[in-house]
Amino acid sequence: xxxxxxxxxxxxxxxxxxxxxxxxxxxxxxxxxxxxxxxxxxxxxxxxxxxxxxxxxxxxxxxxxxxxxxxxxxxxxxxxxxxxxxxxxxxxxxxxxxxxxxxxxxxxxxxxxxxxxxxxxxxxxxxxxxxxxxxxxxxxxxxxxxxxxxxxxxxxxxxxxxxxxxxxxxxxxxxxxxxxxxxxxxxxxxxxxxxxxxxxxxxxxxxxxxxxxxxxxx
Length: 218
Fold this sequence. Notes:
- This protein is of the alpha/beta class.
- Helix content is 34%, strand content 21%.
- The protein has a seven-stranded mixed sheet with strand order 1-3-2-6-7-8-9, sandwiched between helices. Strands 4-5 form a two-stranded antiparallel sheet.
């Protein structure tokens, strides 16, 4: 048995909350949801951020869609370990295409920032690190930095905020410390936010997100 891969055209889905006006370029916040979630969940998280109304907010849905067994809801993930390198390249190109499309349609030509939750954190870092546009920052919640990103690429991520719950069984204090050390080695000083709770986007994260968006547009 011989396995091969072939490129195929597919369509991705994203949600947009545009800024209130188009007179001035709006900053753009691009969110990447976690595993087995939909774009709506990430959009609600970002939409709960105080003072987010002057931003153009986008939630990109992973290309790997499937059904939630109990509710029959359509959910998605970003990739599996099968053909991983090809999927990474496809996903980066996909997210960058979304940024291009939103920028054209809604004059989102201000600061560009990414936010990720859980599995989506890796996607946010990958998109930021490979961006041809300047990136103001990455808000990472409950997920770690992908191992393949170089120090040079990490420096393109702008201000990085690492958020984790003290009771999070996956993104532990050990992993947070390792990511923080890695960023410092790359020349990026991270802002670490610890909060009571687990693997969740809770009120302390909402507060951190508000400070993040205020900080990256200074």
